[in-house]
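User: My advisor, Dr. K., asked me to get a structural model of this assembly before our group meeting. I'm new to this, so sorry if the format is off. These are the inputs:
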Amino acid sequence: MSDKSVTDRRSFLFRAAVTAIAGGTVAACKDAAPKVAAATTLPPAKPALSAAETMDKMHEAGIKAFPAKTAGKGNQLMAPRIEKGVKIFELTAEKFQWETAPGQMVEAWAYNRQVPGPQIRVREGDRVRVILHNKLEQSTAIHFHGLELPNDVDGVPFITQPPVKPGESYTYEFTVPEGNHGSHMYHSHHNAAQQVGSGMLGAFLVEPKNPTEIERADVDYTLILNDGAHGFTFNGKSFPATEPLTAKVGQRLRIRFMNEGMMIHPMHLHGMHMTVFAKDGWILPAPWRCDTLNVAPGERYDVIVKCKSPGTWAFHCHILPHAESEHGMFGMVTAVIVS
Ligand SMILES: [Cu+2]
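Assistant: The format is fine. Below is the predicted structure of the whole assembly, which you can bring to the meeting.
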């Protein structure tokens, strides 16, 4: 379902609700006019909700449902199979149904029945083998976004490899270069607007051999943004089914932002600032602070939040039509909960 059709349906439901309520008010007035004794058998008329109250109730219902349960969870850490020191990850691309918000089913094209695909986590210098199995009806290929690899494993059909046709498998093997640690991604590089927009993406995290002090974190959270066929999502889910980020007072929360979508998303955290210390995996010469961080397609940012203030802090994309409508919050909204 397109975002527009979701918006149109919501607008329709809202107008229908307002019309029904207004209609009820008119009917109640008419009934009240004649003095009829039979009225004693009717229950007392409930006071009609105003349009403002109707809207508030919809907003409240969304917040009360958060975090709403849905089937499926993406970005699950994948344990590699290890053969002769090589870390082996198998990814199967296929179509399946995915629940982005309660009752909201979409068609996913993704890896290992997860949106985002499983999280690959290795160390710099590791030898890695990724075996792709294509169960889709289209060809595909995987690009390792942010990794500086030999040309023949760059994953771009007709430039560095043949397309991986339906029913075929393909093996990528490489050594993660020294110094190329940080928050990277893997995704399809074939008919990508459709394939990545439908879920063919995941996090590829490279741990440094010698972490710097600024990276020290008590909570490490990867937040992948997308805005394709599944609407506006964080890690494959829309509010109120997005996952809250939780930390205790005094803890350091690391957030790894990754934009796999086709639009920019200025991510805004209430109550506490973010210290940006890496861009596209590279440690910045000087960290900087902000409360709104614009993440463009393909970009990654790593930030630290020093969780000093207890409370539930709204955390959302600040392009407001990506986060809220007259029916309440949806899409790119979650919360940082500090307790
Ligand atoms: Cu946005």
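One thing worth pointing out at the meeting: The chain has three domains: 3-48, 81-207, 214-338.

User: Perfect, thanks a lot.
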